[in-house]
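Chapter summary example.
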Amino acid sequence: MENFTIEPLKGYGELAFGMTVDEVVKVLGNPDKQEEIEPVEDGVCAHVIVLDYYNLDMSLYFEGETVSKLCNFYTVNQKSTIYDAKIFDLNKDEVVELMKQNGYVDYVEDTDDGDCVTYEDLDLDFYFDENELVEVFWGME
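The structure predicted for these 141 residues follows.
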Protein backbone atom coordinates (compact mmCIF):
# COMPACT_ATOMS: atom_id res chain seq x y z
CA MET A 1 0.00 0.00 0.00
CA GLU A 2 1.42 3.32 -1.06
CA ASN A 3 -1.59 5.60 -0.61
CA PHE A 4 -2.18 6.55 3.05
CA THR A 5 -4.97 9.07 2.47
CA ILE A 6 -7.60 9.09 5.19
CA GLU A 7 -10.96 9.62 3.52
CA PRO A 8 -13.64 10.17 6.16
CA LEU A 9 -16.70 7.95 5.64
CA LYS A 10 -15.04 6.36 2.57
CA GLY A 11 -11.84 4.56 3.52
CA TYR A 12 -8.05 4.69 3.56
CA GLY A 13 -6.02 4.78 0.38
CA GLU A 14 -7.05 1.84 -1.82
CA LEU A 15 -9.24 0.40 0.94
CA ALA A 16 -12.93 1.23 1.13
CA PHE A 17 -15.50 0.69 3.83
CA GLY A 18 -17.59 -2.37 3.09
CA MET A 19 -14.75 -4.48 1.67
CA THR A 20 -14.60 -8.09 2.87
CA VAL A 21 -11.62 -9.68 4.61
CA ASP A 22 -10.77 -11.57 1.41
CA GLU A 23 -10.87 -8.37 -0.67
CA VAL A 24 -8.53 -6.61 1.75
CA VAL A 25 -6.12 -9.56 1.82
CA LYS A 26 -5.99 -9.45 -2.00
CA VAL A 27 -4.85 -5.82 -1.78
CA LEU A 28 -2.54 -5.98 1.27
CA GLY A 29 -1.59 -9.63 1.60
CA ASN A 30 -1.95 -11.65 4.77
CA PRO A 31 -2.04 -9.70 8.03
CA ASP A 32 0.63 -10.02 10.70
CA LYS A 33 -2.12 -10.89 13.17
CA GLN A 34 -5.80 -11.75 12.92
CA GLU A 35 -8.16 -12.06 15.86
CA GLU A 36 -11.86 -12.42 16.45
CA ILE A 37 -13.57 -10.47 19.21
CA GLU A 38 -16.86 -11.69 20.59
CA PRO A 39 -19.63 -9.16 21.23
CA VAL A 40 -19.39 -7.47 24.62
CA GLU A 41 -23.15 -6.92 24.94
CA ASP A 42 -25.77 -9.63 25.22
CA GLY A 43 -28.08 -9.72 22.25
CA VAL A 44 -25.53 -8.17 19.87
CA CYS A 45 -25.06 -10.59 16.99
CA ALA A 46 -22.12 -9.11 15.13
CA HIS A 47 -18.67 -10.35 15.97
CA VAL A 48 -15.57 -8.38 15.07
CA ILE A 49 -12.52 -9.50 13.11
CA VAL A 50 -9.37 -7.41 13.50
CA LEU A 51 -6.51 -7.55 10.99
CA ASP A 52 -3.23 -6.01 12.15
CA TYR A 53 -0.62 -4.91 9.61
CA TYR A 54 2.43 -3.97 11.65
CA ASN A 55 4.53 -2.83 8.67
CA LEU A 56 1.74 -0.40 7.69
CA ASP A 57 1.07 0.74 11.28
CA MET A 58 -2.65 0.03 11.03
CA SER A 59 -5.46 -2.19 12.18
CA LEU A 60 -8.65 -2.92 10.26
CA TYR A 61 -11.95 -3.85 11.92
CA PHE A 62 -14.63 -5.94 10.24
CA GLU A 63 -18.18 -6.61 11.46
CA GLY A 64 -21.02 -8.73 10.23
CA GLU A 65 -23.23 -11.66 11.09
CA THR A 66 -22.56 -13.74 7.97
CA VAL A 67 -20.10 -11.70 5.92
CA SER A 68 -17.68 -9.43 7.75
CA LYS A 69 -17.29 -6.00 6.16
CA LEU A 70 -14.62 -3.39 6.79
CA CYS A 71 -16.11 -0.85 9.19
CA ASN A 72 -13.23 0.88 11.04
CA PHE A 73 -9.62 1.89 10.54
CA TYR A 74 -6.94 2.61 13.13
CA THR A 75 -3.56 4.04 12.22
CA VAL A 76 -0.40 5.45 13.68
CA ASN A 77 1.25 5.58 10.25
CA GLN A 78 3.29 8.78 10.00
CA LYS A 79 2.71 8.90 6.22
CA SER A 80 -1.05 9.33 6.68
CA THR A 81 -2.66 12.37 5.12
CA ILE A 82 -6.07 13.98 5.29
CA TYR A 83 -7.11 16.90 3.10
CA ASP A 84 -3.59 16.91 1.61
CA ALA A 85 -1.92 17.46 5.00
CA LYS A 86 0.43 15.02 6.72
CA ILE A 87 -1.78 14.63 9.75
CA PHE A 88 0.87 13.38 12.18
CA ASP A 89 2.93 16.54 11.55
CA LEU A 90 0.12 18.65 13.04
CA ASN A 91 -0.59 19.49 16.67
CA LYS A 92 -4.08 19.56 18.16
CA ASP A 93 -4.87 23.17 17.22
CA GLU A 94 -3.61 22.60 13.67
CA VAL A 95 -5.77 19.48 13.27
CA VAL A 96 -8.84 21.40 14.46
CA GLU A 97 -8.01 24.27 12.07
CA LEU A 98 -7.50 21.86 9.14
CA MET A 99 -10.86 20.27 9.81
CA LYS A 100 -12.48 23.72 10.08
CA GLN A 101 -10.96 24.75 6.73
CA ASN A 102 -12.62 21.68 5.22
CA GLY A 103 -16.05 22.49 6.60
CA TYR A 104 -16.06 20.59 9.91
CA VAL A 105 -16.42 22.93 12.86
CA ASP A 106 -18.43 20.74 15.26
CA TYR A 107 -16.32 18.46 17.41
CA VAL A 108 -16.27 17.06 20.92
CA GLU A 109 -13.23 17.01 23.18
CA ASP A 110 -12.90 14.10 25.59
CA THR A 111 -10.20 13.84 28.22
CA ASP A 112 -11.57 10.81 30.12
CA ASP A 113 -9.37 8.30 28.27
CA GLY A 114 -6.57 10.62 27.19
CA ASP A 115 -6.99 13.63 24.95
CA CYS A 116 -9.37 12.98 22.07
CA VAL A 117 -11.03 15.22 19.49
CA THR A 118 -14.05 13.56 17.88
CA TYR A 119 -15.91 14.61 14.76
CA GLU A 120 -19.12 12.68 15.32
CA ASP A 121 -20.61 13.45 11.89
CA LEU A 122 -17.52 11.83 10.32
CA ASP A 123 -17.06 9.06 12.93
CA LEU A 124 -13.46 10.30 13.20
CA ASP A 125 -11.32 10.40 16.35
CA PHE A 126 -7.93 12.06 16.78
CA TYR A 127 -5.98 11.05 19.90
CA PHE A 128 -3.28 13.30 21.32
CA ASP A 129 -0.55 12.99 23.92
CA GLU A 130 0.77 16.32 25.16
CA ASN A 131 -0.63 18.08 22.07
CA GLU A 132 1.02 15.59 19.69
CA LEU A 133 -1.21 13.41 17.48
CA VAL A 134 -0.55 9.77 18.34
CA GLU A 135 -3.37 7.82 16.64
CA VAL A 136 -6.38 8.19 14.38
CA PHE A 137 -9.48 5.99 14.44
CA TRP A 138 -12.34 6.35 11.96
CA GLY A 139 -15.34 4.45 10.70
CA MET A 140 -18.42 4.63 8.60
CA GLU A 141 -21.74 6.01 9.79
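To summarize the output: The domain at 6-75 is CATH 3.30.1450 (Beta-lactamase Inhibitory Protein; Chain:B, domain 1).
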